[in-house]
Amino acid sequence: MRISExxxxxxxxxGELAVGGGEAVKADPIATRQNISLKYLLDIMRDLxxxxxxxxxxxxxxxxxxxxxxxxxxxxxxxxxxxxxxxDVHDESLRGLAYPPPAETLPIVWMAIRGSLRRVLETVSxxxxxxxxxxxxxxxxxxxxxxSTEERFAx
Length: 155
What we know:
Elements: H1 5-18, H2 27-34, H3 38-50, E1 54-57, E2 63-66, H4 75-83, H5 106-121, H6 126-131, H7 136-154
Helix pairs in contact: 1-3, 1-4
């Protein structure tokens, strides 16, 4: 599983809009604060707008704002808006994916991966991200990852 730079930048931009308090936020300060190229950020914002996660306002008081409350936008929504499905296996639907032996159980593994991604990305909202109050299950998974990484590199 690879989290693209585009998804990372989109999530950070959505966080910036969430702390904007419902006011329009110009792209320039977001790009500067998050160290994202303005041109690249505007391209990402177009994808987010197309997915109806953000809206834009023209004029002197213009900029971008969330299209709905931050607690109603999951990280999965952002991910899908800019990168497509959460875990794609060479553009095939997992429901119909089948392999001959000895790999016949591999689609189950792919389903488990997609399910675990959903379990995290669909339960964390943009509001959770900016408040720093992540769901307990996400904190537990992150703790497990930290412990296993430390053990692996301690030897």
